[in-house]
Amino acid sequence: MELIKLHGIEKTYQMGDISVPVLKGISLTIKQGELVALTGSSGSGKSTLMNILGCLDRPSAGEYWLEGVETSKLSTDERALLRNRKLGFVFQSFNLLARTSALENVAMPLSYTAEPLSDSEIKKRAAEMLGRVGLADRLSHYPSQLSGGQQQRVAIARALINRPPVLFADEPTGNLDSRTSEEVLQMFERLNHEDGITIIMVTHDPKVAAHARQVICMNDGLIQNNDPVVSPEQKTPAEIS
Amino acid sequence: MRVLTTARTAFTALRRNPLRAMLTTLGIVIGVGAVIAMMEIGAGSKAALNKSIASMGANVLVIRPGSASSGGVSFGAGTTTSLTPLDCQAILRECPSIRNAAPMVRTRAQVVYGNRNWVPNTIYGTTTAYLDVQDWSNLALGEPFTERDVLNANRVCILGQTLARELFDGESPIGKEIRIKNIAFRVTGVLSTKGSNMMGFDQDDVILAPWTTIKYRVSGTTLANSNQSTASTSDSVNTLSNLYPADQTSLYPEKSSVQQANHPMPVRFANIDHIMAAATSAAEISTAIDQITEVLRERHRLQAGEPDDFNIRDMAELTRTLSTTTLLMTNLLLAVAMISLVVGGVGIMNIMLVSVTERTREIGLRMAVGARGRDILRQFLVEAIVLCLAGGAMGIILGHGGSLLVQFLLKWPVETSPSAITLAVFVSAGVGIIFGFYPAWKASRLDPIDALRYE
């Protein structure tokens, strides 16, 4: 089933009198249950594409269907609701709230849901989610008391608290050492494999992209190649670059 | 998002930087504290001020007889003999707005003690109620005369400070005998100093004595001679007969029984010069005037349409001063209060703006996970209001404590003012909303992408 479908997406930034085209007509399809890596050199437009995919930004032209809904014409509030229900975000710098416990960090998106949950249910769900990322014994720890890998796992739990079908990860391993990066990527694979969550990662690290089953490489606002990878285990970094 | 959750989020956010939250609220704490302290101390001073102005006689009403005229010649105000001591008693009994009333008889005569003499400004014949009406109950020395002295026309008197000085020159006058028009009076007390009144009239240059004594023994005015304007200050030679009530000649031709049935005239045993009455408060004065008018018209058997045979005068000038002072005081306090609250509010706005900038990434994150602009607006607004209300609460405690301290240390009068406290709560919440709105609005307008990337 097609989860995401882009057709002729363009994005042009206006810098005074000069208009700078960043995306120059992107069309792509991502199926449900995919694990996609979005790569490309800096300035290639991958972050802009990510923002549009994540409904944080609106394309200047083109159409974007998410689960069969055309989102490029939605209002700011409607897009916020969409992000809350269907999309999860993981950032390079974790973006956890300081001096706020892991549990409260994870529960934070629930306070913006359309139908409010009871306090006990919020707590239960957040604890359950932290258990799934292997942090069941760290519920009341503050981010400053957690390692980088643990912080990123809290961020993943937060992204998944509303059970979204899609998870966006913007350089998820950029601030982590190689061992914890591996842990996080394995967690992505497990989530993708066991729960069928579609994961889209933006990365410029070939080792990270190697975990993906589909690699979209961008160059100068266009998709250069879109390789469906048959088996990620067989891929070597050399073959992708 | 529910209010409770929002409030909890606000508390969590504020707890992250307690020192800064404390310093931010300090502006409001000081502002509200100043308001509360000013209001309480101000209310106390106002009450004290009101009391001191009231002691100048702002509550006092003077009831004088109307003017008499004969053959087209008017004798001026206070020349009829329409008021009696019984009128005074009736006013006190039947007017609920009157605190006390005293009948007044006045005369002017030379006073002698030993080799000294003096002519006081006025010699008042009255009852002990006069001291209460004039707020003059604290005597400097001795005691006032009694009701019994009034009933028996005893020759006792209280001296004003000027007289005590002029006649006794430092000697204690208590128990000494002075002579007024050759009649010996025993001094029972000395009034406290009151100073000049607004017209420059020395209020201490006075002698108070039972009205019966002054009326029948000193001035000797009777119904027969008192409707001449000069009668009460007559300096006719005193004779023994003046020591005792004079025979009263009848003022009107004797009435037939038919006339008496048609026009019943109250039998008057004595007339007085005027009545001084004190209203229960300055605000009650107009009610008191209406009540007195009704009582006196009925007692004087005045038909509808007939003019009053008396005048009631209030201390309009004093009353006006009183209300102007009160208004001025209130406005002054309000202005000071407003300035300190605005300063506090600007402090809140400043820190909220810093907070919005500092937490740009948090705002971006919240927007990315689905917070709408209005959720962010509400969050920051609630934070500002929580800050202000917390500051307001602390300010109330601080201000109240401060005013109690002032009362304790400086012995200033202080009055707890629940209205000031309510006002402070609403104003601090209002300050939170007004000065918290701009930063909150700014936060809600942030672009999530820029906010997430903000360093």
List keywords for this structure.
heterodimer; A: 241 residues; alpha/beta; Rossmann fold; four-stranded antiparallel beta sheet; 8 helices; 29% strand; disordered C terminus; B: 455 residues; alpha+beta; 14 strands; 52% helix
Task: Give an overview in words.
With 241 residues, chain A is an alpha/beta fold. Chain A has a single domain, classed as Rossmann fold (3-Layer(aba) Sandwich), CATH 3.40.50. Helices cover 32% and strands 29% of the residues of chain A. Chain A is built from eight helices and ten strands. In chain A, strands 6-7-8-3-9-10 form a six-stranded mixed beta sheet. Chain A has a four-stranded antiparallel beta sheet with strand order 2-1-4-5, with helices on one face. In chain A, a hairpin with a 2-residue loop joins strand 9 and strand 10. The longest helix of chain A is centred in the last third of the chain and has 17 residues. Chain A is globular and about 50 Å long. Chain A starts with a strand and ends with a helix. The relative contact order of chain A is 0.18. Chain B is α+β, with helices and mostly antiparallel strands and 455 residues long. Chain B folds into two domains: 182 residues, no CATH class; 255 residues, no CATH class. Chain B is built from 14 helices and 14 strands. In chain B, a hairpin with a 2-residue loop joins strand 5 and strand 6. In chain B, helix 1 packs across helix 12, helix 2 packs antiparallel against helix 10 and helix 12 runs antiparallel to helix 13. Chain B is elongated, with a radius of gyration of 35 Å. About 4% of the residues of chain B have low confidence. At the A-B interface, helix 2 of A face helix 1, helix 11, helix 12 and helix 14 of B.
